[in-house]
Structures are given as C-alpha cells and as structure tokens.
Amino acid sequence: MNVPVEYRGREQTYLKHRVLTEYLNSWAQKWASTARGLAWPPQPNREVRLWYVDCFAGPWQANNQNLEDTSVAIGLNALKQAARRWTEFNINLSAIFVEKNPTAFSKLEKFLSTQTEPVKTHPLFGAFGDHVTTIDRLLGTDPAFLFVDPTGWKGAGMSFIAPLASKPHRDVLINVMFNHINRFKDDPRHFLREQMKDFFGVNSGNIPPKLGEDELFAFYREQLRSAAKIPYIADLAIPHSTKDRTWFRLVVGGHHHAAVELFRNVEKRICGTEANTVRNEARSRETLQLGLPLELEQEDISYQRLHQTALLQATSDILQNLARKSPQKFGDLWPHILCERHITKSELAQIAFSLVKQNRISIIEQEPNPRRRSIKSEDSIELLRST
Ligand SMILES: C[S@@+](CC[C@H](N)C(=O)[O-])C[C@H]1O[C@@H](n2cnc3c(N)ncnc32)[C@H](O)[C@@H]1O
Questions:
Q1: Region 300-383: CATH code
Q2: How far apart are CA 152 and CA 259, in angstroms?
Q3: Whose CA is nearest to atom 9 of ligand 1?
Q4: How far apart are CA 89 and CA 95, in angstroms?
Q5: Sign of the alpha-carbon dihedral angle for 281, 286, 290, 295
Q6: Ligand 1 near 100 CB (within 6 A)
Q7: What is the secondary structure of 246-278 as a DSSP string?
Q8: How far is residue 307's CA from residue 270's CA, in Å, rounded to a whole number?
Q9: Is residue 58 within 6 Å of ligand 1 at its C-beta?
Q10: C-alpha to C-alpha distance for 11 and 271, rounded to whole angstroms
Q11: Of the four, 129, 186, 231, 366, which is 20 to 30 A from 381 by CA?
C-alpha cells in the first residue's frame, strides 16, 4: 500500500482521515439504508436527510487541488457515495462547514461553490462555539455526523460539543490532539488551567493531575458521557508516523451500540493493519535517508499494546460483568466492554464462547445445540457457580 503523496511527512493525518472515511462511509450507508423502509423505523420509502458537520473544517495543509486530502472532501464524498448506493430511495444530503480563519474560509467557499448537487452545503464563518445554536437548528431531528478536529484544544470546549452531541441520531468524532495536550495538561499557568478545564468540561474543581495517557482518556470519555448523556463512547490511538508515541486520539460518541461496534472494527483495520504498513513505509524512507538498516515490524506496536491488554482482560471483563448481573444478554454486555477496551465484538464473542466450552459460563437455552459455534447478542448467558 502506498500512502498518497499529499500525505508524505504527515502520515498520522492520513491515518486520521482513513478512520474518518471508514467510519463515516459506514455511518452514511447505514442511515441511507433506513430510507428503504425495511430497516428501523419501518416506514416505506420515507425521506431521509443526512448531515455531515465539519466543526473545524479548514482547508488545512491541503496539498491536493480538489482538497481530497481534507475532511471537507472526505465528508462530501461519504454522503454522495451513500446516495449513489441507494439511488432508488428518497435521500437528501446536507453539510455544514465551520471555519474561523478568513483565508481558509474563502478557500472553503470557493471550493464549495464548484460543487454541484446533490449535497446542500452551509459554510459558516467564525468560531465553532458561536455557531452551536445555528447548527443545532439546521440539524433538527435528522441523523448527523459531527467531526470536531481543532488545531490544538482551543474552541473545542465540552460546553460547545455536548449540546450538539447529546441529541439522538447524532454521532460525534472528536480528534483530541494528545501530543499537544499532554505537554500542557498539568501546566500550572492560570490561562492554561482555564483552557484545559473548558476542554475537559470541568466546571468546578480541577482536572486530576498527572494522569497517564489511558487514564486521561478514561477521564475525557467520562466527562463527555456525563455532559452529553451519550451512552456509547470509545477512543482509539493514532501514532506518530515514525516515533513510537501517540499523536492523536480519536474519541467517538453515539446513541446506539452500533457506533462502538463499527468503531472497533475500523480501529482494527486502520490502526492494527494499515497503520503498520503506513508507518513501515514512513520509517523506511527516513531510515534509508540516514543510510541505516530497517527492522520491519509485523504488527503496529501502538495498537498491539492496547489490543493485547484488551484480549488479556476480556475473560475477567466478562466474568465481572456477569458477577454484577447474571443472567444477562450478551447484547447488553459487549457494548460496555467495547467502550473501554480495544477489542472487536467478534473477538469478544469468541472469548465468551471459549468460557462456555470451559464450563465457566453457560448459554440459557431450552435445548442445548451441540453444533453451536458462537454466541450472539440475543443469547442470555449466566455465570456457572464453580467460576
Ligand atoms: C486541524 S485543522 C482542520 C483540519 C480538517 N478537519 C481536516 O481534517 O482536513 C483546524 C481548522 O480549524 C480552524 N479553527 C481554529 N479555531 C477554530 C474555531 N474556534 N472555530 C472554527 N474553526 C477554527 C483552523 O483555522 C483550521 O483551519
């Protein structure tokens, strides 16, 4: 796999855009398919309007004339693709782009003016925080995907994100610039303390000091959950292209468990597999320039750390969940584990099934099925006494 030349030297942005593309494409396809009337809610050929909201749109560091290396084009393309796939249904498309920088905004307007139907676009000039009410009004009750991708942390405070993300049928993806935030999160200067409190949505008291990376994100997720009342929130790590450290962390929030199921599948594909190839390519370019031999990694180390922990913890996660409530539907249990852990639903189901084989849990069924090979969401499982 070759990383497009526009992304050379900023491969972490490529990976961020790959996650955005994969998640948004599936999100748009899923909602477009509801116009069929076969999926929920079951109304024949109902009209569906889908929204993409780019709260920090840019264009920013674009190297491609058609802005294909920006979230602006990625968002528009995802909507158009969904409409193309379901042409026979009544799908309307809209997008909102917010940009504060006048030069970037005029580029944005110029680009949008070259776009032909079918997406109705709303460019909004100014700070995201000043447009929250307008965005909320435009979206109404339609399904919307919100992308929050600030340059640092300023202007992306929890008090702006929460009122928009709290409404049903809205998914949010927030890029938390971990590398920058990590350098300043414990800085004692008053103005930085206030900015950090805005970002994390801390209204009284302080952000707990000296949090490690995983603890910091557990804290951010909890703040988002309580401010926006979003039931399903998860995050993933995007590493720097050549250094072994996290650059961005993308946090997803959704009102349906399908959000975390999709997010973990995207994470495995992009952060587990593609990131490895992308980073090996970037490292080999750097190493060859320095004339050093290259040791290729087989798996991406950044994802491996989180994924291996999740796999190791999965058995106790399942047993502890069942210790709190047994019996329980597997479908009530997996979304909460996926919010915390970097594991896919099918991996977790396999581990749960191996616990059945070990007689540590059982599936409640009238007639045991000897040919059974997996656990499904609708299955009720219970802890066996000897566990
Ligand atoms: C990281 S860039 C966005 C990149 C873009 N989302 C992408 O992936 O291609 C952040 C953008 O937000 C703009 N910006 C900064 N503060 C803002 C604010 N408070 N409201 C809206 N836009 C802002 C910057 O001018 C910049 O263009």
A1: 1.10.10
A2: 25
A3: 70
A4: 19
A5: negative
A6: yes
A7: EEEEEEEEESSTHHHHHHHHHHIIIIIIIHHHH
A8: 13
A9: yes
A10: 12
A11: 231
- β-partners of residue 124 are 98
- Confirm or reject: Cβ of 71 under 6 Å from ligand 1: yes
Q: How far is the CA of 4 from the centre of ligand 1 (A)?
A: 22
Nearest CA to ligand 1 atom 18: 127
**The three-state (H, E, C) secondary structure of 280-323, written as one string:** HHHHHHHHHHHCCCCCCCCCCHHHHHHHHHHHHHHHHHHHHHHH
From CA 149, how far away is CA 172, in angstroms rounded? 11
Domain boundaries, the chain: 5-286, 300-383
| Cα distances (Å, whole numbers) of residue 144 to 135, 251, 254 | 10, 16, 11
Query: How far is the centre of ligand 1, averaged over its atoms, from the C-alpha of 85 (Å)?
Result: 30
Q: Which of 6, 7, 3, 13 is nearest to 240 (CA)?
A: 13
pLDDT (tens place) for every residue of the chain, 387 residues total: 678 999 998 999 999 999 999 999 999 999 988 877 654 555 556 788 999 999 999 999 888 888 999 999 999 999 999 988 877 778 899 999 999 999 999 999 999 999 988 999 999 999 999 999 999 999 999 999 999 999 999 999 999 999 999 999 999 999 999 999 999 999 999 999 999 999 999 999 899 999 999 999 999 999 999 999 999 999 999 999 888 899 999 999 999 999 999 999 999 999 999 998 888 888 877 766 655 555 555 658 889 999 999 999 999 999 999 999 999 999 999 999 999 999 999 999 999 999 999 999 999 998 888 888 999 999 999 999 665
Q: Is the Cβ–Cβ distance between 139 and 51 less than 8 Å?
A: yes
User: What's the burial of 117, exposed, middle or buried (CB within 10 Å: 0-12/13-18/19+)?
Assistant: exposed
Tell whether ligand 1 has an atom less than 6 A from the beta carbon of residue 101: yes
State the CATH architecture for 5-286: 3-Layer(aba) Sandwich (3.40)
Q: Which ligand 1 atom is nearest residue 127's CA?
A: 20
| Concatenated DSSP letters of 164-211 | HHTSTTEEEEEEE-HHHHHHHTT---HHHHHHHHHHHT--SS-PPTT-
Q: What's the CA-to-centroid distance between 60 and ligand 1, angstroms?
A: 7
